[in-house]
Amino acid sequence: MCSGAHGQHNPVEQPAESSNDIVVGQSADLSGPYAKITRQFITGANVYFAQLNSRGGIGGRRIRLLTLDDQNDPVQAVRNTHQLLDEHKAIALFGYIGAQTTAAVLPLLNERKVPYFAPVTGSRIVYTAFNRHVFTIRASYANEYDYLFSRFSQIGLKRMAIFNDATGQPYNAMMKGKISDASAQLVALESILGQDVEKIADKLLASRPDVVLIMSISQNVNSALIRSLRTKGYLGYFYCASLVCSPLLTSDLEEAASGLIISQIVPHPWKARTPIVHEYQKAMRTARVTQFSYLGLEGYIAAKVLAEGLSRASSKLTHEKLIVALETVNDKTYDNAGYQINFSPSSHQGSTYVDVVTVDRTGTVQP
Asked: Which residues of the chain register pLDDT less than 50?
């Protein structure tokens, strides 16, 4: 169980649990393949909640983010969710990581009519059909790809290769359609399933792509493929979506990451060009956290917007009151300068914000 300090990724010490706390429940991967994503997100969220609690919380009640480790195991995620709702009386489920755990808990949250806020995934499972209990604050993968392909045509990238794994394969048809719509050419489609990285790198190199679209979610495999292609002389671009590439930015890719194109769903967290980024940086420094990140900013924004809903839901909080309150948060009633949030009774996708950044020769992310 994670509810307090865990090194630099989750530095904000949580107070001892009180019966008067507003408990926000999270089942997430703290020790498995998505641990880096989880801990960066939790850092930002806990920084915001700690800041809010220092000002008196919500109506004098502290918000307590209670995170249980599921190691990206959907079965464990369901167990954790039962525990969060039954034992800890969580008012909302928050920041679950990835599509698999989300798919596993959706039937339970629908049955219990619990707000499921800010899942960290762009999967179709939470974006294709409206679900009254699900609120997202990030753009979907489809939003990211639409934005990306509109830019590819502008910079003359026409020859495209796809690299994926089991998670990326369901998106093959969609990606082929977007490549065709962009008047580009799919020159290779390779999967890590049943192959090794070196053979895949040889095949991709032979296809002479302008850009390799990385649809795999394995950080180790993706890093190995990028290094291998660079070693073999590939001078083109790589692209990956926010959740695929963001964790790679703190790895040891070094110069091999040069030419990496990344779609991001929050503003650049290292340059305070917008009020929300300035606020995030100030809060992080106050909490003595020196490492900013896209996922940390996402967690900070998620916590801030959820807290706004909690504040509007009145002192006698219920799941239903929170849902109704969150549906009133929009750009006409809520100022979140630099990252607009728009909920309504008919739409719970709070944002479609997408930007594209690149990694330069020094490994620095350039907006």
From this structure: 1-11
